[in-house]
């Protein structure tokens, strides 16, 4: 066990007794220390139960290393507390404590669930804060040089709270082919897979993540054997970049690991709920932001020549075109200046963006910083051309260059926000835009929309700061 795991144990050793004290205080109206004779008989039982709870927490997987989603951590904590309460009942029965009431048992369950989850929240916030400053991240080597491997490295670099810091690549067999590639995505390439052990030593890596689409199965087995004598975590991607982890389960098939995929079922009630939510929220926001919209319109009108709104043809659901509406943030002839600025383009693929775009007006910079320029798009959401959450609305010339795979992005309405917004909008490559958009389309749900909306405001404020 590493020291982070022991820290979790220490948090729980505080959280569980705190939950018992809180339950006793509620049950017997005690002071915080519970020094009342009515509860005295419980102290022995609770003292025995506390270490037992820690063991049961370990059994339920609460101390397993590795990255877990918030939902998975909540599930394991819930199961651990449930097991703990069952053990509390059994201990009280064996101790023949007849006065151990059902009311106290329920209060102990609710209080311990609250205190343990609170402890986990504080612990995770502290760890995430340290990881954002480059600490507590495990140095990781990515095996493979293909697009999946690069996407993995970009994702882990952006999302430091996952706990891994990519420090380099190792080429799969045949990927170098005599070439002298030394850096990819700004990271060094430490040779090829047959020398994986040496690469781990050179990079001082604590983990290896294999892009399965780059490494054949027979080479993967050898790579795994070569790392057996090294103290490193080994992970293998599923090679399913556009499928949510919640839809994938590993099932044994006569000893063979097989990936089972849950089908997507977009029921009509879900689609109706999404549309109703869009109407109610966009309508309410348009009314609430009316004063702000009027002030922004006046600022655009009286500070630079040109129209108040910028309208551009974008492609919506099923390829239907619509006019995107935003407050104008650039000078009037901005589109004519693109040809002179192409050499300064910082984006790749089909995108065009410049960090300090000279075409943006002073008022435009302010509107963009706080995303006020995008508020008129609520009109498109209200009338049904867009949604609050969805893929980034593409240009017509972008769609004209899509292959069959990319056309999956236009199966749903484009959104004012989406996974591309909350995962580092201005730091994303075109490949990452596409990956997030396709992931959203393939795994859409009402719950995912609510989660993205919940993350959007902090993402905007973080970029505005």
Q: What this model shows, in words?
A:
The chain is built from 17 helices and twelve strands. With 465 residues, it is of the alpha/beta class. The strands form four sheets. The protein has a six-stranded mixed β-sheet with strand order 3-4-2-1-5-6. β1 (138-143), α6 (147-158) and β2 (164-171) form a beta-alpha-beta unit. α1 runs antiparallel to α5 (102-132) and α4 packs antiparallel against α5 (102-132). The longest helix is centred in the first third of the chain and has 31 residues, at 102-132. The radius of gyration is 27 Å and the shape is globular.
Main sheet, how many strands, which sense, barrel?
A: 6 strands, mixed
Using only C-alpha atoms, the radius of gyration works out to 27 Å
Which runs of at least 5 residues are low in confidence (pLDDT < 50)? 31-40
Q: What portion of the residues fall into strands of 2 or more residues?
A: 5-15%
DSSP summary: helix tally? 17
- What is the averaged pLDDT score? 82
Please report the total strand number as a whole number.
Answer: 12
Determine the structural class based on helices, strands and strand pairing: alpha/beta
What is the H/E order? HHHHHEHEEEHEHEEEHHEEHHHEHEHHH
Percent range of helical residues: 40-55%
Distance from first to last alpha carbon: 39 Å
The largest beta-sheet arranges its strands as 3-4-2-1-5-6
Outline, from the CA principal axes? globular
């Amino acid at each position: 066990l590493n020291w982070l795991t022991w820290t979790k144990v220490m948090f729980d050793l505080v959280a569980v007794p705190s939950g018992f004290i809180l339950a006793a205080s509620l049950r017997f109206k005690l002071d915080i220390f519970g020094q009342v004779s009515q509860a005295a008989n419980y102290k022995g039982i609770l003292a025995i139960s506390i270490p037992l709870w820690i063991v049961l927490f370990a059994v339920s997987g609460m101390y397993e290393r590795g990255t877990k989603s918030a939902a998975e951590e909540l599930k394991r904590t819930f199961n651990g507390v449930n097991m703990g309460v069952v053990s509390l009942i059994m201990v009280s029965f064996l101790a023949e404590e007849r006065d151990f009431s059902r009311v106290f048992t329920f209060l102990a369950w609710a209080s311990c669930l609250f205190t343990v989850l609170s402890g986990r929240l504080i612990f995770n916030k502290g760890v995430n804060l340290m990881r954002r400053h480059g600490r507590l991240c495990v140095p990781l080597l990515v095996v493979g040089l293909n697009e999946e491997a690069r996407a993995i490295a970009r994702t882990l670099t952006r999302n430091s709270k996952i706990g891994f810091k990519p420090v380099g690549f190792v080429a799969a067999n045949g990927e170098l082919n005599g070439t002298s590639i030394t850096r990819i995505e700004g990271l060094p390439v430490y040779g090829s897979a047959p020398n994986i052990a040496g690469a781990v030593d050179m990079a001082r890596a604590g983990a290896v993540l294999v892009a399965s689409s780059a490494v054949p199965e027979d080479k993967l087995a050898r790579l795994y054997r070569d790392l057996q004598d090294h103290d490193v975590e080994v992970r293998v991607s599923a090679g399913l970049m556009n499928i949510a982890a919640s839809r994938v389960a590993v099932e044994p098939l006569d000893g063979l690991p097989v990936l089972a995929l849950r089908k997507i079922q977009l029921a009509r009630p879900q689609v109706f709920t999404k549309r109703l939510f869009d109407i109610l929220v966009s309508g309410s926001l348009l009314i609430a932001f009316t004063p702000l919209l009027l002030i922004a319109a006046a600022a655009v009108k009286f500070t630079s020549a040109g129209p108040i709104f910028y309208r551009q043809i974008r492609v919506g659901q099923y390829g239907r075109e619509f006019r995107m509406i935003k407050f104008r943030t650039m000078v009037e002839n901005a589109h004519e200046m693109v040809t002179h600025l192409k050499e300064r383009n910082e984006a790749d693929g089909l995108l065009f963006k410049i960090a300090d775009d000279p075409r943006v007006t002073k008022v435009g910079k302010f509107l963009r910083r706080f995303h006020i320029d995008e508020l008129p798009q609520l009109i498109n959401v209200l009338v049904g051309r867009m949604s609050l959450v969805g893929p980034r609305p593409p240009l017509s010339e972008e769609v004209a260059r899509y292959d069959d795979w990319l056309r999956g992005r236009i199966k749903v309405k484009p959104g004012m926000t989406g996974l591309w917004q909350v995962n580092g909008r201005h730091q994303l490559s075109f490949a990452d835009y596409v990956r997030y958009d396709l992931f959203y389309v393939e795994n859409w749900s009402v719950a995912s929309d609510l989660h993205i909306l919940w993350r959007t405001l902090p993402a905007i404020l973080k970029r505005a700061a």
